[in-house]
Specification:
FAD/NAD(P)-binding domain, 2 domains, five-stranded parallel beta sheet, globular
Length: 374
């Protein structure tokens, strides 16, 4: 029986698992991750306001694993050997006939003093700390920003930070405390949000101006301290720093022979295949994929890549052409707690559409997406 291993338990990994089972009822699938749980990261933005709790977003995969007839290997991946045919973990080795890597990326934590910043996409615990800090504050300056990987332009995640920024503004206004706080948005990019399209970028900056959010743009960051942010263009005070660093590949790649981009991601072709490795495919944040400069690192893109990777992997194993390519598109709702801004982009067009109902559309999508895993 053909054995497929999937590294990860996030969007790309679970889509790959369900897609494989749909395409082949008998194939043996093993999911490899530290825990058999799925964290719905897009809704972490709602924890600081109390709209969601950690338990709302932490999904036990026991039912999904049983329904899909998947084996689960509890372990942290530490490397590969045998050209990908063996996955090494801290809990033993797992052999396979085909491998899909959907382990996600890791944040670049080289900036001096970065321990003074909280990063929402590090997970539930980090986001709960943000909620606690905000509730404890009586006033002051909250600085919200993101960085990138200069050697991998697509390896950034700015969207959630725009949502945190606007969500905090809305929350503090609801609490009647907004006048006690200064909110500053900062990034080394002079054109933040440009990957969403110029119209979206201008709309986001205009929204900041309307809400009285000041900006610090275009200056390379040098250091964080407990109460300030130091850049090449100067420094400014911050009582709370919320920062999303750029991303690079997982650390276990050092114990593999997989090809990597200059930015540290796994080099992948348009078919989601790792060049020079038989039956090894990638979906999601750990890969460096060909495509336009605005190719997003987001859950939707990981799902699209996972569906392509599974089709091509099964085709390659069956000695058939593995020529599927993934659709390139960006879809997100930038939520502000009281409304949403839909941003859609593909190779042909860009659409930006603000609407109050989009906040509820985002909540409905969360419910619909998680249904299949609950």
């Amino acid at each position: 029986m053909t054995k497929i291993s999937i590294i990860g338990a996030g969007f790309g990994a679970l889509t790959a698992a369900s897609s494989l089972r749909k395409l082949d009822k008998d194939i043996e699938i093993t999911l490899i991750a530290p825990k058999s749980e799925f964290i719905y990261f897009p809704s972490l933005i709602w924890i600081p306001s109390g709209l969601r709790t950690g338990d709302d977003l932490r999904i036990d995969l026991k039912n999904f694993i049983a329904k899909q007839r998947i084996s689960f290997h509890a372990g942290t991946v530490t490397g590969l050997k045998d050209a990908g045919r063996t996955v090494i973990t801290d809990n033993g080795e797992v052999s396979n006939d085909g491998l899909i890597i959907a382990s996600g990326a890791r944040f670049i934590k080289k900036l001096p003093g970065i321990e003074h910043a909280l990063t929402i996409c590090e997970g539930i615990e980090a986001t709960e700390k943000i909620r606690t800090r905000i509730n404890e504050m009586e006033g002051g300056t909250i600085a919200v920003g993101f960085g990138g990987n200069p050697k991998e332009p697509s390896a950034m995640r700015g969207g959630p930070m725009f949502e945190v920024l606007f969500g905090l503004d809305t929350l503090l206004r609801r609490q009647g405390r907004r006048d006690q706080f200064d909110i500053v948005f900062f990034t080394p990019s002079p054109t933040p949000g440009k990957r969403l399209g110029e119209k979206a970028m201008n709309g986001l900056l205009s929204e900041m101006e309307k809400r009285g959010i000041t900006t610090q743009l275009g200056n390379k960051m040098k250091q964080f301290t407990e109460d300030k942010i130091i850049t090449e263009g100067g420094e400014f005070a911050a009582d709370l720093i919320l920062f999303m660093p750029g991303m690079t590949g997982p650390s276990w790649l050092d114990n593999t022979e997989l090809p990597r981009s200059a930015g540290g991601m796994i080099e992948v072709d348009k078919h989601c295949k790792v060049a020079g490795f038989d039956n090894v495919y990638v979906a999601g944040d750990s890969g460096s994929f060909p495509g336009p400069a605005w190719l997003p690192k987001q859950a939707h893109m990981a799902d699209l890549q996972a569906a392509t990777a599974t089709k091509n992997l099964l085709a390659e194993i069956a000695h058939q052409p593995a020529n599927d390519t993934f659709k390139v598109e960006l879809i997100c709702i930038v939520d502000t707690l009281d409304k949403g801004i839909l941003v859609f982009r593909n190779i042909n067009r860009t659409l930006v559409f603000p609407c109050k109902l989009l906040h509820y559309a985002k909540r409905f999508f969360e419910w619909a997406y998680l249904r299949k895993y609950r």
